[in-house]
Amino acid sequence: MSKPIFEIGAQGVDTAKIVADIQAAVSKKIEDGVYADARIARAERTNLVNLRGEDQFLGFYLKCLHDAVFVDISDFEIRERRRYFAPMLIRLKKVIWGLLKFYTYRLWSQQNQINGLIVTATEGLDEKYTAKVKDLEARIAKLEKES
Fold first, then answer.
1. pTM
2. Cα 41 to Cα 30: distance, rounded to the nearest angstrom
3. How confident is the model at residue 4 (pLDDT cuts 50, 70, 90)?
């Protein structure tokens, strides 16, 4: 078995219990529908297992990040939970949204650009260092054969 990437521990801390509690909480949230995106649910369900050294761990999370990087800037339905004055409050909220939409879209579009650049840079670094590690492993294997 490979050595874990990192270990959690301190005197008097039961890490196995903490991990079990986290896994139970995640399972409950999945059942409750908190993680609506299946990829996120699967990532949360398996991340502690993958942290043990799985080679595809970073690739899996980069794919999840790539899929969820952009802020949804589409219009949304404005609802009101309160029964009294609901039509008036909905109209007020629509007026406020109409006034702020231009500024909000500008901020969201800028944030989407930044998020896209960060994900692209992260994926590029991952590809670069993966290729570099493969090259170094090949060189080591060649040198071991020669000696």
1. 0.51
2. 6
3. low
